[in-house]
Amino acid sequence: MTTPNCPVPHREDELVLMGHGAGGRLTAELLETLVLPALGGPPAGPLEDAALLPGLPELAVTTDSFVVSPLAFPGGDIGSLAVHGTVNDLAMRGTLPVALTLSVIAEEGLPLAELRSLLGSAGKAAREVGVPFITGDTKVVGHGAADRLFLNTTGIGRRIHGLSPSASRARAGDAVLLSGPIGLHGTAVLSTREGLGFEADIASDTRPLHRLVAALAPYGTHVHTLRDPTRGGLAASLNEIARDSSIGVEIDENTLPVPPAVAAACDLLGLDPLIVANEGCLVAFVSPETADGVLAAMRSLPEGSEAVRIGEAVDGPAGRVVLRTLVGARRVVDMPLGEQLPRIC
Hints:
Blueprint: H1 25-38, E1 51-53, E2 56-66, E3 72-73, E4 76-77, H2 78-91, E5 95-107, H3 112-129, E6 133-141, E7 149-159, E8 175-178, H4 184-194, H5 210-214, E9 223-227, H6 233-245, E10 248-252, H7 260-269, E11 283-286, H8 291-299, E12 308-314, E13 321-324, E14 330-332
Parallel strand pairs: 5-6, 10-13
Antiparallel strand pairs: 1-2, 2-7, 3-4, 5-7, 8-11, 8-12, 9-11, 10-12, 13-14
Helix pairs in contact: 2-3
């Protein structure tokens, strides 16, 4: 009697999905199985928000693309978001921005007045940070070939003396700190896009975080890991850190700073605030003996005035994030499969 063959299903017509760009498990799968192998294989360490330049470890580089829809939303627009997002990716590696590039991909038919306003917003945001645009590019594609306007940025940063955070350096026992409320950016963008009406109460938290990170310099190597929870929200960031540092993470639901308007919007829409994108807060893993001092340093600045301790890193199981709920139960916080709110950055 022969054993029937049961081949693994394989499709030659697999397609890119919106979830592949959402920062969750589908993004990781696309990177691991297609993007990184095509470009020469994965790096030696974890995938960080910014990379240290080979041979020049005092400098970091990051690149990002912004495809948010709509182009403007309460609290910001694609121009300011592009600057803040790039500056923040550099800051999460403990560096301050020294230069930016900006490439513009505009769709035929975009009003010049709107383009002028959005690029003016990018210029204003860069001046407020104190970082120049040093080069860029402009392309126009045919009507229908893009969604009005895409922006691509590159940022160069210089290391803040004493800081060397990495997604792989969190340790069991670390305090987990959050610099501010979660869920504001994603719900603001979704409400504006879909005309849900929450925009009267919710504005994006988009802002630069480099000054907040610079305030942590006195704590040096006690600051193990920094990450801004953008695509995939806090859930994705904590899962990535737990995986890359081979630790477990436990957080308390009653300490999570979810604004009432965000909680109401998420309840109505069936969203989990933990996976909604943010653009103006960071999560930090720090030595427990320095947690109070780091919190005080964060709270001394407007962008960290609502900083809180939300949990701690534990010995294991490695890679698992657990939420202690309001009623005393425990539930696993999984890495999102994809983003519930696409096109938010």
